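Appendix B. One record, verbatim.
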Amino acid sequence: MSQFPHDEFAKDLLDSLLQPYGHTEPAKVVSSEAREIDLYFTPKPTYDPSPDLGLLGKLAQTPASFEPYRNPATLAQVKSCMAKLWDVQSILGEIDSPPHLWILTPTFSVDKLRKLGAQANLELSPSGIYDLPPAFDTSIVVIHQLPGTPETLWLRIMGRDNVQLQAAQEIAALPPDSRYQSKALKLLSNLRVHLDIKKRKTVQERNLIMTLSPIFVAQLEQAEQQGIQLGIQLGMALGILSARFGEISPDLFDRLRTLDAAKISSLRQDLITFRSLDDLETWLTQ
């Protein structure tokens, strides 16, 4: 991770969430000056994002360039992002769906929006999304203006201060079978580690570490408890197999240890029908 851990977190998160639905290119190099787009996304022909992605999934319905900023983007940075987009468009030429630029910034002043000629996009969100004139293929997402709803969760986690803290707590509270929770928690864990070793932390970064720490303690305790239960179930299955067929070979034992909870549960039901360890071999193969 670079010296800008928050920016790396945002790029890694976008890459992780959008990768199943198309081709992602983090740090895409454009032009002879070697400028880099933070993340360039091309959706698959059969693009069908999970509803769980909410507003982020809607932003990625067409080829898109994502440029997240930890601190409020300046006018110069907006213009630089637009220059990179035009480089890409000049390479692609005239196409039906030119890439759209989404600049993600925690805040952005009304004066800067006025100077850019940006207008609120009320179709996508009641607040927080502003489109520049159509010829520019550019929109600005002001993260801290977005409604605090599940629809905006995967954008709000790229915000800062209380907005990011609240989003982190919402991610931790998602159901265990949530499609994206484990990915996001892993990236947040990496962010926490890098902030922890950072010598000069802002007050907001200290607050983020304090908020994330109990979340990951709870996650580790839950994983440990699940591991204990899994070990108990596997031990019971091994006990039955050993009592019926004798000692289990190291190879079979290693293969049984890789089974997840659902397969161990299935094994405990099916092993009653086994007549020999050959039946166990067949079951593992199938």
